[in-house]
Each structure stands twice: as structure tokens, then as C-alpha cells.
Amino acid sequence: MTPAQAQQRIADLRVQLARADELYYKRAKPEISDFEYDEAKRELADLEGKFPQFASADSPTQRVGDDRVQGFQEVAHRQKMLSLDNTYNEAELRAFHARLAKLLGTDDLGYTVEPKIDGLAVSLTYEDGQFVRAVTRGKGDRGDDVTANVRTIHSLPRQLHGAAPRLVEIRGEIYLTAAEFERINAERAAAGEELYANPRNLAAGTIKQLDSAEVARRKLEIVLYGLGYCEPAVVESQTGLQKKLSAWGLPVVEKSWTVHGIDAAWAAVGELDRLRHGFAYGTDGAVVKLDNVDQQREAGATDKAPRWAIAYKFKPETARTRLHAITIQVGKTGILSPVAELEPVLLAGSTISRATLHNEDEIRRKDIRIGDLVEIEKAGEVIPAVLQSFPAERPKGAKEYDLFAAVGGKCPVCGSKIARIEVAAEDATGVAWKCQNYDCEAQRAGRLGFFCSRRALAIDGVGGVVAAKLVELGHVQDPPDLYDVPHGTLATLNLGTAEEPRVFGEKNATKIVAAREAARALPLEKWLYALSVPEVGETTAHELGRRHRSFAELVDSPLLRAVLQKAERVAQREWEAPASRKNPAKSDEDKARRKELCARLEAEIAALEAGPLAGVPADIGPVVAASTQEFFVSVPGRRLLKKLHHLGIDPQGTVATAGVFTGKTLVLTGTLPTLKREEAEQKIMAAGGKVSGSVSKKTSYVLAGEEAGSKLDKAKELGVPVIAEAEFLRLLAGG
């Protein structure tokens, strides 16, 4: 591989891994298996080692994944919360032992072997035995404060039993049991909603909900197994820690092994593999740790992982079957996604007849053809995916798959033209084929389902099945049309067939009507995100909503115009630079002219940055600005705004104005009687105030609800005024 080829491959792998990190950590919707992810990261590490000139401190190989999301207060870990290096074979596990033996000067090493729980990593802080805080791993040094949500876990004690350290960080994993996962999906199936993919993703998505009351409805569980900062020190070994955690009344791993030497550790890994399917939580591997804490300290850690522990990942179960056909699904953005139609095969306890193929480029890279014998796996033990084909057993005449030819150059749903485009959307990345018809029935159904999703307007009950049926029957053209669908029409909606009817029902219809009315009060950022404006993701919608008071202001936004003006001047400055390589100066006079022009452009850019663009984040860039402006002057965009006006829906941005909380800082704690946390925060910001995650002498008020925790105690200690929801609402009303 030449340096140029290596540089390109390194860049491609970093984009691929960044996309995978975003889906796994931020959205809890991974599209590749852990094995594929680790293989890509290993290839990247190898290339960076062979071509150090292309190494980067910001590479995915050099940092911990980042699970932080918008809406949560960030909290620093007292001791960094690292991830684990992974291995998939015995030789690498033995190499791990050999490195430790050389480092510590002895081959006689004691290990503990524990299940690797497939959940969301979290760090709990107890002060004098009292639970005070729960923080996600985040980016290792700081994470999201999810205390209110973790308090809903009934198996977690608020007070440690017996003697406890003055301060201790205890690390563990939040998960959903298989039974609870099945219960939740059964409810969604009965309501015609799209099913959740797997327990791990649902647990991760649940703990990042801003509404702790909703979190409580899903019975999360937790298991503790590690130690962060601890004062004073209380254990000398991992085995001792497990005993201490149990004595404190904390839920711990069901089974672990304390062994000497790598042979015994390897045997324990095999025994765990045989037992793990009977555990309450999902497992995807075994964690092998040095047992002795002093040896752990001596071994130390890299920036992303301890040297004294490693995760042996169990390879997902696979099966071979025949690929009979490739069908096409069309998503809410019009992206055409290929799906493998398989000869049914039993895999990991369920019968699989369909699997994802991601995109056309992936099909070609793996050389997958119709008629092939293929190997499939459950990525993350749940999502079926095609791993590879077996060309040696390929039927004669099997041709390379051509998506354009397969669909005749037209959308398989609406018959409109398709185009090959660069995408970085939620349902695809890289190069993909896209239906050009915004009013394609599949896109309409996808947009309606997204409009009603939890992260958008949270109109429970309108999942993929219901959305598709409402669009199919002509009840909904654009998402806001849902408001014009009568209660009776919803109640009698047939989700089945004429021969086998499945009526949606009165109860589900009532739930939708109530939820859609509640959504009217949601802020501009939620509505902007829910309407699927191109290039506007959740974070960008939040930033735009904070800087505009309404859709009317956004449509004619001076801020977006300024973003585009800056981009134009930056591009012109680069083109006219005296030393420009793409546009070399023709003479000394030309250089002098360019120097003067660039100075003027610099001044104009500085004026924009100091004026309308002051404090505007990089999320609102020229691509977002152009896309947003183009959308709202397009036929579909104008149609959406007209329908919102007809419905009397005018979402308000959270632009801070002079109000009762101007210059004041409020802290929220506990569960409020009627307001969701997010709603309370929006009201505070709209009234000119700021929201903080921690109480200090500068805090103006603590807004406290039920199960208020340490923040309430801190407020009383510092003499900060504490108000309930009723007082809060009276203040907003001018009381």
C-alpha cells in the first residue's frame, strides 16, 4: 500500500468509525456488529502504526467513545472512566498475559473472570454511604448526569449497608432484562408501533430520556462490578471488591471466577460462555482482570483503557443460508436500502428470513449476489446482517448486483426517478440512491413515524405500521395532517387485512389524541426536528430553536443569511489569496490588489463573527443554513407552514428575553407533579433565566419535586431558596 492509498484508507476508516460511534453512543442504533467495528478499528490502528505521519490524537484509536447528548448536565469523574481493549481469540488473550508477566516480572498472576454485560456503562457516587449522583462514561473524563433516571431503578439502594467510605465511585452497567424487553415490545406490537431492536439499545436510549417518569415505566436494572475514586481505600483485590459490593447491598454479577494463571483464566472464559445464556442480563464477552489492586496500579493504563484488564468478546452466532432475492426499502429521506430475502434459518433462538445489506457499495465490497450461499449473524446479537458470500458455491450465471438496474432507475414505491448522491443521514451514509419525489408514499410514512417518535414530538402510538396505514388510506399527506384525523377514524383504523382485521381501538386512539394535543406546547426546536428539515439533526434543531422565536423568524433569518455571507467571503478570500495555488496571482500589481481585497474580506468576516454570528456554534454552518432556507421556500416547506398556521400551531423558540428569571440561575431536582424537566427548563430560559446542574452560592432557586436528592440537601445547607412547581408557575405568571 502506497502512502497515498494508506492516507485515503485511514480517512475512510475514521469516517466509518465516527459514524458507528455516533449511532452506538449517541443514538443507541448501531448498524454494524461489535466484531465489524473492532475489525475496522484494528485495521486503522495497524495503518497508523505503519504510516505514523498520518496518525492523529483525535483518531478513534486514541480516545474513548463519547455517549454525551444534548439536554444533560455534564459532570467530571473524579477518576477517569476508561473503556476496555477487546480480543476475539485465545492467542491474543495469552499475549495480554505475556505483556503483564513481563511488566510485573512474574508469570504467577491471579485473575478474576467476570461476565461482560451488554448495557450502558455508568458511575455511581456515594457520599458517607448515601447515593448522590449517577454519571455516564461520556468521553472518559466527564459524562452526563443521569441521577434522576437512575433513581428509578428499584434494585439500587439509596443507602449502602454497613460501614461505607466517605466518598466512593462505583462503576457498573445499566440493562433491561429479556422479559422486560419482551413486555415493552409486546405493548408496542399491540399498538401497531415499530418494535425496539434489542435490550441494550433500549436501555441506553431509556437512560438518556429527559423525562424520568417515562424512564420509570421501563423497569431498568443495574449490576455493579468496578471501583473508581475511593476515599479511604477499602479493598486490595477485585475479589475483595465483589464481596464488599455485596455487603453494601448492591446488585453484582451472578457468577465470577478467581483463578491463577492464564490457563485457568481461559478455562473460566469457556465455562462462562456455556453459562451466560441463563443470566438475567445480556452478555457479549468475558472480562479478564488482574485480581491484585497493587498490581493493577503498577500495570497502569493508556489514555483509553487499563493495561490490567481485557475483554474477550464472544463471536456472535452465525448461520449459513441461501439468498433468494434483494428487495428495496425506502426511508423517510428517500434513501433506497437493500434487504436480503433469505431461506429461513434458525439463528440464536429465532428464525431469520431477512437481513440488512446496508447499501449497494457494501454489497459490491462483499461480492454478494442473488442465489449465493451467505453467512449471516445477529449484529449485537439481535439485528440480522449478511457477513459474507461463498463464491465457490455460487450458482452459474449469478451477476453482480446493480441497484439502479434492479429497480429500473425508478423508486419501487412511487415510480419516480432515483439519483445517486452523497449522504450523511440517519438512515444511510456514504453514497446511496435516493428517490427524488418528496411526496413518495414511503417517505410520507417514514416522516410521519419520525414526527411522532420519542425524540421528536413523542406522540406515542404512531409507529411504523400505523403511520404507513394512515398514509396508505389517504388520511395523512404531511405529518401535521395527523391533527385533522378524527378520533373515530383512528379508533376504527384497520391495521390488518379485510380477511384478518386488526382494529387499532378506542384506547390507542385516545392516547394519540391526548399526545398530539400535548405536543402543541412543545418548543420550536422539537417541531423543527420533527418536520425532518434536510441537514437539521437534533443538536442543530436545538441550536436554531435557541436563536429564533418562531418559524416565521426562522424562515427570514438574519442569522442564516449571515452564515451564508460569511461562507461566501471565506471562499472568496481563499480564492483571491495572494499565495493561492488554485488561482495564482498574475503580477505584482495583482498580488497587491488581492492583499487589499483579502484585508477587506477579513474585516467583513470579523464583523459578522462579532455581530450576528457571535456565539453561534459550528453546528449552524453554511450547509445547514442553505438547506434550511431552501426547504422553507420550497413547495413542501411552504405547504407545511401553511398547515401549521391552519392548525393554530406556532411553536416558540427558547430565545432568552427579559423576564422574571433574568439574571437568575435555577437548578432542578426530583420529579415535578405536572411539568416534565424539559418543559420546566424551557420556561426558565424563555423567562430569561439559566439552568444549572449543580447547586452553589450563586444559585437563585432550586426547583424541587418528588424524590429530590442531594441537590435539595445542598440548597438547604447553603440557604438557597427552594420552590415547588406551584410557586414556580406563580412566579412565571407574575406572582
Largest beta sheet: strand ordering: 2-11-10-3-9
Number of domains: 6
Provide the CATH superfamily of the largest domain. Answer: DNA ligase/mRNA capping enzyme
The dominant shape is globular
The CATH architecture designation of the largest domain is 2-Layer Sandwich
Largest sheet: 5 strands, mixed
Structural class: alpha+beta
- Strand percentage lies at 15-25%
The stretches of 5 or more residues where confidence is low (pLDDT under 50) are: 425-429
Helical amount among residues, as a percent range? 25-40%
Spatial gap, N to C terminus: 72 Å
- Please tell me the overall pLDDT: 88
Structure in words:
This protein folds into six domains: 3-62, Helix hairpin bin (Helix Hairpins, Orthogonal Bundle), CATH 1.10.287; 74-313, DNA ligase/mRNA capping enzyme (D-amino Acid Aminotransferase, Chain A, domain 1, 2-Layer Sandwich), CATH 3.30.470.30; 318-433, Nucleic acid-binding proteins (OB fold (Dihydrolipoamide Acetyltransferase, E2P)), CATH 2.40.50.140; 438-519, 5' to 3' exonuclease, C-terminal subdomain (DNA polymerase, domain 1, Orthogonal Bundle), CATH 1.10.150.20; 527-647, no CATH class; 665-732, 3-Layer(aba) Sandwich (Rossmann fold), CATH 3.40.50.10190. Helix 1 runs antiparallel to helix 2, helix 20 (558-576) runs antiparallel to helix 21 and helix 20 (558-576) packs across helix 22 (622-633). With 735 residues, it is an alpha+beta fold. The protein starts with a helix and ends with a helix. It is globular. The longest helix is centred in the first third of the chain and has 24 residues, at 3-26. It is built from 26 helices and 22 strands. The strands form six sheets. A five-stranded mixed β-sheet has the order 2-11-10-3-9. The protein has a five-stranded antiparallel β-sheet with strand order 14-13-12-15-16, with helices on one face.
